[in-house]
Amino acid sequence: MRKREIAKIQKILLGQREEILQNAKKTLSGDIYLDPDDFPDEIDTASSEMNLAFQGRLRERERGLLSKINEALDKIDDNTFGECESCGEEIGLKRIQARPMAQLCIDCKSEQELQERREG
Fold first, then answer.
1. pLDDT tens, 72-112?
2. pLDDT for 20-66, tens place per residue?
3. Are residues 70 and 99 in the same domain?
4. Whole-structure pTM over 0.85, yes or no?
5. 65 three-state secondary structure
6. Shared-domain flag, residues 76 and 30
7. Which residues, 6 or more positions from 74, have their beta carbon under 8 angstroms from its beta carbon?
8. How many CB atoms lie within 10 A of CB 81?
9. What integer pLDDT is reported at residue 25 of this predicted model?
């Protein structure tokens, strides 16, 4: 992969990381909270609690994604970005463009998904 392509991917990854960190700051700063005095009945309270739980699950998924983004950025720094962690071959540019934090080439990822389906 050429340096220009890697620089574009790095910019995308940095943007994604910044967006996730901003969402986390909103959560921590109290922009997302549940105040029981705001709700006149139990249905409104339950609905709000469900929305809060959903946002919590989103933040948890973002935490996992943030970890993968940081790993990809570390690989860029180490000049190992774009190598499949399973077979060592280069991950295709189209796959990297679609999922910049991809750790496996399309063949290894397909095999992994097939194995997961077999197991359960």
1. 999 999 999 999 999 999 999 999 999 999 999 999 999 99
2. 998 878 777 665 555 555 556 677 677 777 877 887 788 888 989 99
3. no
4. no
5. helix
6. yes
7. none
8. 22
9. 82
Is 108 in contact with 92 (CB distance < 8 Å)?
no
Domain interval for residue 47:
1-81
Question: Is the dihedral angle over the CA atoms 8, 5, 84, 112 positive or is it negative?
Answer: positive
Cα–Cα–Cα angle for 80, 82, 84, rounded to 5 degrees = 95
- Res 17: pLDDT: 95
The number of folded domains in the chain is 2
Do 58 and 1 sit in the same domain of this protein? yes
CATH code, 7: 1.20.120.910
Contacts of 39 (CB under 8 A, 6+ apart): 45, 48
Q: Which residue has the tokens 């679609």?
A: 98
Tell me the β-bridge partners of 90.
Answer: 83
Which two structure tokens, joined as six digits, stand for 114? Answer: 């097939």
